[in-house]
Amino acid sequence: MPHKIAFKVLHASSIDNGFSIKELEVHNPLVKGWQSIKFCPYPQEIILRLPKKTRIKKLQLLVHQFLIPTKVEVYLGSLPPEHVVSLHGTRYKRLGYVTMSDNERTSFKARELKSVHVDAVGQYVRLVLHKNYINKFNLYNQVGIVAINILGDEVDDDGQIIPDDKQQRVNDLINKYMPNGQEFQEDSLTTQNAIDPAVLGAMNNPDFISPMDDLAFDMYQDPEVAQIIRKLDLRKNEAVLQEEYDIAKRLKQAIADLQKVGERIGRYEVEKRRAIETEDYDLAKVKKIQMDDYRLQIYKQLQLHDLLESSKFLFWPPKNNDTTSDVKESPRYKKQDEAPPAAKTQQKPRLDPGTADDRPLPALKNSPREQAPAEPPKESPRRQELQEREEVEVQEEAEKGTLNEELPPGVTQKARREATGAIDVFGEEVVFKLYAKSWSLRKEGIDNIRVHLEGITETDKEILRNILRATVFLINKLLKDKVISIFTSSLDLTSYILEDWLARNKMTRNDTAYVVDNVLPDLMSRIGDTNARLKVASVDFIIEMARMREVLPLHTVPTQCTIPFKPNSQAKIATTKVDIVIRLLQDLGIDRNSGLTVDNVMTFALKAIEHTAGEVRDAGMQLIFELYKVKGSEVRSRLPNEEDPQTKKNSLYMRIFDGLNKIDGKPTRSEQKIRAKKEKEAVKKAKKEEIEDLQKQLADLRSLTKAAEAANKKNREPGGVNNNANGNQGKSPRAPSPNKRKIPTRASSIAEHSDTGEDTDNQCVFCGDKDDAYRDDGMDVHYWKQCPMLKKCPKCKQVVETSGQTEHLLTECEHRAKFAKCPRCSEAHEKVDLDRYVTEKICDPLEPGMARCPLCETQFPASDENWKTHLMGPNGCPLNPRKDAKKKKLQVKEKKGPGAAGKQIPRKVKGNKGAKAR
């Protein structure tokens, strides 16, 4: 069968500093592989030599994550017969080439494993690497190969396959268990001595490649675990040949479990190596301890020692009472049974038990050896030796009183073995109470432990640590109890250990960390308990433990609680975990002494809002809001852009941003929409009211104008009464006097100029501007929008003269009750602000004979001409918005061309057919 072929690297075109071509000969998680020099010439070559001529079935290349060649050509060569070994004398045959991925899809973090299936014979392999892919990480245009694996069968000069050690082992078993090496016959299949042909065919499949020979197995497995897996795989095959299917099943399951274990230990090894490179020796020590503890824990959990021992003494044929006579008569059995005693005692097992992977582990008493029959008839020498050893062990255990003795109800031999350390410290009576079915006995056992701890006067640190480990072991058992009183008592005992016992005995920080590391996982497992009281008690104690003086500097609780969970994790546990982080954030805050940072909390919260359950997402948003109250800008920097179109489509992020705005006192998006709608409606309403007011004023202006025209016409008729000669009758109606400061009507203009006969229908009486567009209703629009001598009252919106705004606010305005005359500047100010104007001297006193512009507060001599110059002149009031109206109107006329300044027709206002406005 094809298997892994060792090779030597003979040549490489170039080698970068810090790398070695010899690393390609080794496969483990820590190898760096080969890397070309910076800005190397292409193509680059690597030449490998195999031990013998080999029929290669598969070639595997593990390429660097970003130093990636675009193409690799594969050549296979050999030397002519009796030729002196020389690198240049090799004859190569091109097998083809493989292309590599540019790795952009994985962000240049994953390494590509390329497997090439070939069928060719040779002893030398030549790899030609072409130019690299260009990416932002490969600054020097290099290429790199992390590992190379060759799978095949070694052949002799005649082309016959030379079996490897594994295949030779199978062949030896077949030869051993098949008399005289004969082929299978129909009559031989009826006996227990024969091997099932189906099993033999599966074991001798010429195209089968073991997963243990794959490159991915060695590159991600711990070397020690990988060696154990290979040994178990060999023994599994032997058990299948010998029809020991129970053992084969156990071995198969152990192999599957150990593969996962080896990958995890391999990751620990990589992390430890990285810590050593960065000189973080504390982290390296932690990783080493984690590796050793995890390794021993798994070995014990899988009962690896018993598994190796039991599989080491496989025997042939399988025991069968019905075929005892056939077994006795078989030549193999007779040959073994007639062996001299010395040969029996010196016979070695099939695999050497002294290798590194058979390290001594605590022997578990529930080994399958205990279930073996006491004395099977005429056992093989190896079986007899095994049984004699078991009898010795049973006798020793019986002498110690640890076997076949009656134990209290609820206590098994397995439980007793697990609690050996605790029994040595507290005694059997106290420990067995904790295993009792009665909760009152368990409660009494907890009280006894507390009394025992309080009475300790020992000063030896090693003895105290043994006591601590025994106590933590019992606490771990009690934290799994379903009775609330037992659970809370175990919490009280834990609190006593952390807050009192450790400090009183001057234990180190590592001892505190040991307690927290072992207790916290059990507490976290109860936060999703169906018993609400147990759940609340667990959560409260986790928060309390995080605040403890000895525990707070460790940062263990915040760090463990902020480990992100998967999006499909159990909703109840996930929600509770988020609530715990919120409470920790409120109690401990965000700083380097609390163990909570913006990074770890936001990473945890962003994973929470990606959960499939709505309650978890809501809890995650609440956590973001709590963190935002403390670190607002840093939280926003870790969220997507609020104005991004993709973000606006995400309702979840919109809810988050609404919550953040609410915290800032800003309106949410829904509130902003409501406010904008209200403002729009208010503007629309104000515009409507303005139009209605304008229509009312225009109607009043039209009525006054008609009355004035009628009176003027009557005065001009023969026999009419001249109002200058006789003031008793026929007085023409006039607009309010300038002292009233109301907007003038066209009637006043007509009346004032009626004596001279001048046409005043197209001239403004205030600014003196003339325009044919002022005829009819155009003058009204001029007053309302354009005249620079007029302005709207800021309160009632009535058009008044700018020079008369103060008198208007004091005597005519609808809001005149709110205004009073300032004794300092003689202007109109609101009564609520009048005292402040006087006391703080905000305004300047008005000098005698001077006037003050209400727009720019400029003083100038009081006269109509000065007002006109100030409000209309080019260097006049800078704050008069109507000053440049005439100039803009002239510019419009010029754009329209000659004759364009015709009659201005105001547009009709909706809702009133008779009213017109601009």
Automatic annotation (TrEMBL):
Main location: other
Keywords: Cell projection, Coiled coil, Cytoplasm, Cytoskeleton, Repeat
Gene3D superfamilies (UniProt xref): Leucine-rich Repeat Variant
Signal peptide (from-to): none
Region Disordered, annotated ranges: 318-415, 663-688, 709-758, 872-918
Annotated SUPFAM superfamilies: Galactose-binding domain-like
Extent of Basic and acidic residues compositional bias: 325-338, 376-389
Role according to the record: Required for ciliogenesis and for structural integrity at the ciliary tip.
Description of how the protein assembles with itself and partners: Interacts with CCP110 and CEP97. Interacts with ARMC9, TOGARAM1, CCDC66 and CSPP1.
Protein name as catalogued: Centrosomal protein of 104 kDa
Originating organism: Holothuria leucospilota (Black long sea cucumber)
